[in-house]
Here is the input.
Amino acid sequence: MNAFRYSIPCKGIVKGYAEGHALVSREPINLLSIDAQGRINDSTHTLNGRSVSGTILVFPNAVGSSVGAYRLYAAKVNGNAPRAVVCARADIITASACAISNIPLVECNEHYGRLIELCSKDNGYGDGGDDGVVIAVDATNALITIGK
Amino acid sequence: MQLSREEEDALDGKHGEAMATAYRILLAIGNAMDADRLVPVRWAHISGVNYNTIGDAGLAFLEEMSRDAEANNTRVRVMSTLNPMGYDPVKGYHDERFVERQERIRRAYERMGVVVVGSYTCIPYEVFPIPARGEHVCFAESNAAIYANSILGLVTNKESALSALASALTGKAPYSGLRIEEARRPSTMVDVKHEVKDELDAALLGYFAGRIGEQCISFRLRSSSYLGRDGTARINAKALCSALGTSGSAGMFMVYDALHLDQARNRVEYTEMDARMVREELSDEEGGDVIVFGSPQLGLYELSMLAEMIGGRRFRKRCMVFCARRVYEEARRIGYIDAIEHAGGEVYSDCCSCLTPLISRNDVDSVITNSVKAAYYLRNWNRVGVCLKSMREIVRDECI
Here is the structure.
């Protein structure tokens, strides 16, 4: 734990703990675009074609389809969900999806900008999926720690 | 969020796992949105019906919920209606596996007491009786949620498929977001410099606004009569609601005319250039193989307009029209359906253009539609090309 370099306070929405590589989106995500393999299929999105499977998925909030919640759940059932989700502001779609999928969920509000800055600063490309910065999400104790 | 003793018991599983899951969903949403309590709702409109979108995982979830609900004698506590399914069950669908799965989804909802007959609509506000202004409802379909808040004076958040199901089973929703009066004041004002003449203009504006505003958005229009509850103003409002719901998270809008002083903090201008940019982003074809009307499903007035515009001519290509079942029956009686079918149009009910397997890249390269929501999903989901035009332009160019 103490190998992490930075920490950011957050609010725990769905309890739990997970570590993984950050997959960072600066834009909201329409969760409907996530398939059962965990891939994002949205040609208008910068993460089009990327997989959320096994990542710590960091995005501001969900937009679009109300059915998006079922897509994240389907990814979970198929073993392809993110290990945890970090939002700037958790919304109804994301919160309900994480609640039935038992995916730890936190929101970090005003600290979101700093979080994505830290995710990018360490290696120059925070959107790097498997190559992304390692972060730990502790929804139970409301803390995100960054950079191993 | 404070739960009552009875709510705590339900969360702990005293009334079975389905009810506990419903409360778990509401608790997570309540925590996310800083709700202090749950409030009663009058009506839940549930999405997550189409097998094409929820798939086997969603089907298994609903079957488990409905089995547990049945075992514990749990049924929905309030009127609960459904969004469209994948195809028109009267016309049938060639994929037997799909049909079997879709039928199981129907049975799961039916076992929980959800209205399935005459349901399957994304315009519940044109099909079912409307509660009094100020009543809380729980609408998952985004165009319906925005329409309910903005045009009907009902109160809802832009719900998720799961929150609407949870509210159906509990009869409650977290007191948060647009359910709180202060959030229903516009924080962003869009100063509309471009004239909103028809449903396509309204939809392009909605798509633009969804990208920049949250919660409640106000529009300053040259005349506030373009968006409203009746006639063409309703058609424009429906188009705007569905496009706004597609591109962003806002769940409500207000309309001011040029004389009103608007208090919104953020102000953004919307010009002809913005309209053109949105249109170019969503419309990448000059024409298309198939004409698609719907999303949201057409109401009676739109069907009458379409029949009148066609004026006895015929479509030069395949034309698919999506409307609600009860609207279809009424329109059949009046003669609108005959007029559209005489022109070669195919009219589908219980399903809609968005996310239906009826329109796929295997059969269709590109579609012509007046719906921005359909354009967004057909491009990004069905991966077909799109040509956006207003209903009047489509009929003008494609009827002979």
Q: What stands out?
A: Chain A touches chain B at residues 11-14, 28, 32-33, 36, 41-44, 61-71, 73-74, 76-78, 89-100, 105, 107 (CB under 8 Å).
